[in-house]
Amino acid sequence: MSGETDRSRKRVLMLLERLGRLMQSRGHELGLKPVQWEALRYLSRANRFSRTPSGLTAYLGSTKGTVSQTLIALESKGLIRKKSDPGDRRAVRLELTAAGRRALGSDPLLEFAESVGALGKVGEGTLERNLTALLTERLEQIEGRPFGICRTCTHFEKNAPEGKPHRCGLLELPLSADESEQICVEQES
Ligand code: SF4
């Protein structure tokens, strides 16, 4: 690797780190820890099979202990609730409360949406593609799950006869139009 290539890659990494730091510090100002915001965002985007402590642990790439503390804190603030799974009483399902959904209306990440928009349609598209490629490459290296959108999954059966209107071929369950836009712990592109 040439010296210039090496410097360029380090600059990219420092830019990513700086942006991440800016996003996290705004989160602190609004009274929740960065990981608590991430958990709330995850629960607002994940499908019903993925809104579990283990799904959140895999998404965050964190430890069970950290996730457990995060969930306790969010539950004590009244932002999430735990429910037992009707099909498996030992399993726990997580959901946002009305207060949790309201909190996401003040999500500090929304402040960055304007800055992304300022890049223009082409710049925004290029950034999205490049960040997606970077994330995919890194997840492959560490064997992490992609958590992609359901309708892009290899198991997604669009407008299946026995679906509602779609179907998951892996879990053999119907999927609604809204669920086809959610992220999933089992998603495979
Ligand atoms: S089709 Fe894929 S992404 Fe959708 S629910 Fe099934 S496994 Fe998950």
Keywords:
5 strands; 189 residues; Arc Repressor Mutant, subunit A; binds iron/sulfur cluster; two-stranded antiparallel sheet; alpha+beta; globular; 7 helices
Describe the overall structure.
The chain is α+β, with helices and mostly antiparallel strands and 189 residues long. It has 2 domains: 3-141, Winged helix-like DNA-binding domain superfamily/Winged helix DNA-binding domain (Arc Repressor Mutant, subunit A); 148-189. It has 7 helices and 5 strands. The chain has helices at 3-29, 34-45, 53-60, 64-76, 98-104, 110-117, 120-142, and strands spanning 80-85, 88-96, 156-157, 166-168, 173-175. The strands form 2 sheets. Strands 3-4-5 form a 3-stranded antiparallel sheet, with no helix packed on it. The protein has a two-stranded antiparallel ribbon with strand order 1-2. A hairpin with an 8-residue loop joins strand 3 and strand 4. Helix 3 crosses helix 4. It is globular and about 55 Å long. Bound molecules: iron/sulfur cluster (SF4). Iron/sulfur cluster binds at residues 47, 49, 150, 153, 155-156, 168, 170-171, 184, 186-187.
